[in-house]
Amino acid sequence: MGTDVTPASLDAKTKVRSKDVVFSPDHNLVSRLYVPDGVKPNQKLPVIVYYHGGGFCIETPFTLKYHEYVNTLSAQANAIAVSVDYRLAPEHPLPVGYDDSWAALQWIASHAGGSGPEEWLNSHADFGRVILAGDSAGKTSGCDDPWINPVFDPNLEKLGCGRVLVVVAERDILKERGKEYYEALKKKTGWGGEIVFWEVKDEDHVFHLQKSTCDNALSMNTKIVEFINGGK
């Protein structure tokens, strides 16, 4: 579906540089990479892998609101960010979007030894600090067949990460599902990691994109950045 497109660039305000890189030549899928412009040679930074929302039908990493959000997140967290594109329905129904998201993660992981195809990741990615993030549809991209079993994956105890942050908005119709995911990880599985739950009052679905400069959005970003950098 057609939406606005913002080119990659050096952002004069955030001092973050971005560029587009093909991660799946067979399907011409592109990720947008972000890196703080002042990063030193071979300085290692956390890696944020971001999956956009849009109901698996609309949006891309290149729309203005996603470009600005991930750009800002990269600047505030002092992190490399990879904003992932995936094919959309109805032309490409699920699980195609999940498969593309997994392919992007595999492409990123191919740089762990320092010899992948993208130099920004080879030089600056700290693969001991990788954060999977997303909103709306994008927050499900790392789950095991969530279209079949969206609330409780029976293999949650095998979740590979050690820390999880769940953020919901008070007025969001999907809030309860976020709370159920939090409760499942905390109490109903053998997963032994750290989980943090935070509810943003008086806000609705993806408010941080629609009202990116409001006080609640700024507070949420601060919470996310603290979580990212708390993994040092």
Automatic annotation (TrEMBL):
Domain Alpha/beta hydrolase fold-3, first and last residues per copy: 48-138, 142-208
Database matches in InterPro entries: AB_hydrolase_3 (IPR013094), AB_hydrolase_fold (IPR029058), Carboxylest/Gibb_receptor (IPR050466)
Leader sequence residues: none
Official protein name in the record: Alpha/beta hydrolase fold-3 domain-containing protein
Family assignment from sequence similarity: Belongs to the 'GDXG' lipolytic enzyme family.
SUPFAM superfamilies the record matches: alpha/beta-Hydrolases
Recorded GO MF terms: hydrolase activity
Pfam families: Abhydrolase_3 (PF07859)
